[in-house]
From TrEMBL:
Origin superkingdom: Bacteria
Coiled-coil intervals, chain numbering: none
The protein's name: GntR family transcriptional regulator
Keywords: DNA-binding, Transcription, Transcription regulation
Pfam name, any one: Peripla_BP_1
InterPro entries from the UniProt entry: Peripla_BP/Lac1_sug-bd_dom, Peripla_BP_I, Tscrpt_reg_HTH_GntR, WH-like_DNA-bd_sf, WH_DNA-bd_sf
Organism expressing this protein natively: Candidatus Jeotgalibaca merdavium
Molecular function as annotated in GO: DNA-binding transcription factor activity; transcription cis-regulatory region binding
Amino acid sequence: MTKTKYQLISDEIRSKILSNAYPKGSNIPSETQLQKEYDVSRHTVRQAIALLVNEGYLRKEKGAGTFVDDRYLSPSLEQKKQQKTIGVITTYVSDYIFPSIIRGIEQELRKDGYSLLLASTNNDLEQEAACLEQMLNQGVSGLIVEPTKSNTYNPNLSYYLSFKERGIPVVMINANYEELSLPTVCVDDTQAGFLATDYLLNHGHNHLGLLIKLDDLQGKYRMKGFI
């Protein structure tokens, strides 16, 4: 079903709140500014704001403006958080090593009564942002993430700060974002690159080539071991 203009505006403002573009307690643009920014009527802007106030993301203060509510983690989300659900975001789901990884995570979660909420980015940064918003809105108890294009600039890092502010632990797998200090489970790709190169050299192969993905840290570190 096609969304109305006010719903689209509220979606964008909500995304800015979740990504910390509008930090908790900050004053969002005035109704007049939003009206000009989105080229809509004042009534449409007020509908969008009213929806977010009702959801707990915004609060209005007479004479002061509209603010990001520092209690925007609404009771419904808190209740979901108690459902013992762990979010898992991988770049892919059905290919390569991912089916085994996902099965292993799910098996361990079940032992402690947790369920799994799965999402995939297809190694696309816009889809990663959508996945992170989904996890924040669902109120997961924890998050396991394989980074998307971990060796390139990532505009989604502020979402991870939102998880930290909510006290939701995040663990990276296979790689990490070097700008963030998060626990990571991964192989030693530098050592793996070195061992593979050393093996070939010791078996008389002196003209070696290397095929890697440089947009991921795995490729960067494997190249380091190769060199």
